[in-house]
Amino acid sequence: MDWTIEFDKAIEQYLPDLEVLQDEPMSRHTTFRIGGPAKRMAFPSSREQLVLLMSFAKNYGANPRPSPPAPPTWPPAAAPVPW
């Protein structure tokens, strides 16, 4: 059985307000606009949602890959630029 069926049921029951996209093209989320569809792409809005989401993914056989945080801009906006 595909892990997505049970995963979707758990998300619907325990995290009904979590935004989850199905078969989302990764090309919409990458700099070079490349990448095939992700079976599920979720956008947790709290630590609690993230913990439950990762737990469900692991329990139902998914291979979750959280995105790293975005790098800071350079130079930082508040830092003075030496001349």
Key structural traits:
83 residues, alpha+beta, two-stranded antiparallel ribbon, 30% helix, globular
Summary, kept brief:
This protein is of the alpha+beta class and 83 residues long.
Write down the secondary-structure element order. HEEH
Query: What percent of the residues sit in helical stretches (DSSP H or I)?
Result: 25-40%
Question: How far from one another are the termini?
Answer: 63 Å
* SSE class: alpha+beta
Mean pLDDT, all residues:
84
Q: What do these coordinates show?
A:
With 83 residues, this protein is α+β, with helices and mostly antiparallel strands. Helices cover 30% and strands 17% of the residues. It contains two helices and two strands, in the order αββα. The protein has helices at residues 3-14, 47-59, and strands at residues 19-25, 37-43. A two-stranded antiparallel ribbon has the order 1-2. The chain is globular. It starts with a helix and ends in a 24-residue tail after the last helix.
